[in-house]
Fold these 2 entries.
Entry 1:
Amino acid sequence: MAYCVDYSERANAQIYLYVQRSTQLQQAEADLLQSEFLRECLEKLEPVLVGVQDIICLGLGNFLDCTIARYQLAFIRCVRNKANLTAKGQFFDPVFTPSEVDTLQHALGETVLQENLEGKYSVERKTLFFLPHCPKQIVNNLLWKNWYPHRLPNVVLLCNSFSTVVNNAPDRLLRINAGYILRAVDLFQEVPLRNSFRFGDIFNDTSLHYFANNDRPAGDNAAVWDCTVEPSYAEDDLELISKEKLKAIRSAENSGAFALASKYITDQYRRFETTEQQHCRAKEELQFTAETYRCYLESLRKLKDLNESYRGKGERSIRDTADMVGFKLPHDPK
Ligand SMILES: C[S@@+](CC[C@H](N)C(=O)[O-])C[C@H]1O[C@@H](n2cnc3c(N)ncnc32)[C@H](O)[C@@H]1O
């Protein structure tokens, strides 16, 4: 069904969505703050987060549309505040929309990173990486980039459990697309976060990982640090959006090669693609939001029609009606 929507309707709908979304984020933070889940997480996280100077969050997803991503954003903000960390969050996800970038930077005071480093961040000081349900290649790249005895201890990771990754695929395959995760299992301490939150698909399979050289003498063995070959992945196995892929998408968008509709569909597809780590509820949510939005616009249109029909040409003014029945208005002379 086609709707011809005028600009004021659109502006109203946008304001309505904006208010709804800000409220949703505040609600998510409030919800977490009173949860047993967050309390338990903080007990495990706080001692490890002492001295963290930067917080980098990758692969959050579309937090304005998707409940999972919204709660994850709320989570990292609550953890930061409760653990008294002063760092701003630095966020990157190639699927962020302009409204999401704007919300992070201007409404929430966080930082949005511009460059797609595919996880290859070099870490010179203690940094918390929050990579909720992120492609394993991003974690693998991050480990590779910091695979030095003086750098790896700076990496604190909140992401999908290393043990799950390692236990779910044969070493032969892991050596190709997650070789550094495979090796990190012996160097990092893994602390699973018990998934007791009321929604089971937001923090599932999430663990805290930190370098634990004291407990793991493996780190003292020079051979551990020997091989530092940059990982490369087969294109068809690639869950992450690589620099090349992103460049191709953006240049297609800029060249106008995409009609608006096909661009929209591609965006939605990319946004709600389901990967091995995620059973995304966002597809249904998108449908629900679209249906709500359609209903809202349809109601506005009907209201406008009703106003036009019943308050139209035939309607008499108060003065006309008063004159007709012989009444005076309050300000008329006696
Ligand atoms: C499985 S989704 C997880 C989304 C959300 N955090 C969740 O748990 O539902 C993986 C996310 O990683 C993002 N991603 C892919 N390539 C990336 C890259 N190069 N850098 C940062 N994020 C990336 C995707 O855009 C997507 O949002």
Entry 2:
Amino acid sequence: METNENNDHDEATSAHAGETSPATGSTSGHDGARASSNSDEGELYGVLAEFDSPGALVKAARKVKDAGYGDFDCYSPFPVHGIDEAMGIKRTILPVLVFCGGITGTFLGFLLQWYCNASAWQWNVAGKPVWSIPANVPIGFETTILLSVFTTFFGMWILNKLPQVWHPFFRLDRFTKVTDDGFMLGIEAKDGRFDAVETKKLLESAGAIAVEECYLDASPANTKMPMFIYGVIICTTALALVPFALVYKARASHSKDPHYHIFGDMDFQAKVKSDQYNDLFADGRSNRGEISGTIPRGWLNDDTSYAQGLENGAWITSFPTSVEVSRDLLRRGKQRYEIYCSPCHGVDGRGAGMVAVRSQKIGQGILPRNLVDPGAGVITQPNGQLFNTISNGNNTMMGYGAQIPVADRWAIVAYVRALERSQFAAGTDLTDAERSAAMGATP
Ligand code: HEC
């Protein structure tokens, strides 16, 4: 339909009955408009009014809303403040949907982890409970975000009825101004209150600088989606399945060809690995073995009694000569013991540390040895053996050599000895002076 872009204010707003303008279709009514319309004009879709400023648009929107219209919309080149309220648009329910989506995500995330870790395939990780909320928070958080985002994204599309590639107002040339300087208000004919004459009058009285009728295309064929779009959709869908088909084929078949290397420089680095062939050397080995007369840094274990608790292949019963057993050493040992050993063996060494108690409670029975009970045998073990247990572990107890330096291991040995001794101390073990000091200076 043709539109006269140069309609000025008076012309447009004075479009009364009889002043039929084929150019604008501004006639006295639906039937009249039809009679004078081009053959490609179908049903009346609605009327479009243009306003000269955002303020005028807001005022008009309020007026149209107050007149009881519901099926109308405003179009502007930029967001106009207050237009939602003027149009009577309620706050979107999207936040509620997103909240529900998020909660669903939390629930599904936790359910998945519960099913995998606590139900279908229980997995004992160092005696920890198979199900514990804190451990599952990160994944639960992620799934919450995931579903919230999906709900936001798709909810926004659905609530806005997107994607909408075409709108009947596109048939009016005037409507193109809406991306530049046009402030438009369109009322749809399907609105219960719509009346071609009255509605236009209303818009004119609301300050419209132009009012136009908009007709749908008469030919049904023109309102259909072009066939080529269906073709494009089918082709892209089919193409999108190709990678999946390739992956499936790769998984289900065997091939002698080498793998594809997407990151070649990561897969093939210019370095030798110990078991690789290497023609640089006569024996063809990359691994050159230990070079006689050398040791790795920090591996100087000449003093086996200090480094391993061994002397001539036997556990030492005393302390290495370089370790001076002093009050400071015991203090250090106590502190290290309480950090590294007490969680399992307990501060008193009786094997009732937090980890032990907890593991008993959840039925995962991890029983740390009682270090101070003569019946449990640690008391009679040589110092070297105790040192070795700390370094390398024993049965189900792992070694702490990697965490605790040698000197601290000896400090712990000394402290464990003191701990054992303390359980069987008699008053006579102290001198009179020590006893009175310990009792608070009273004899
Ligand atoms: C994670 C818990 C845990 C921690 C921490 C731990 N232990 Fe143990 N320890 C055990 C358990 C369990 C056993 C019993 C191992 C077995 O016989 O299966 C044990 C056994 C021992 C034994 C007896 C070894 C033997 O020959 O029978 C000694 C000694 C010992 N621990 C010392 C220590 C010292 C010292 C520390 C601190 C550096 C320490 N443990 C830290 C769990 C622990």
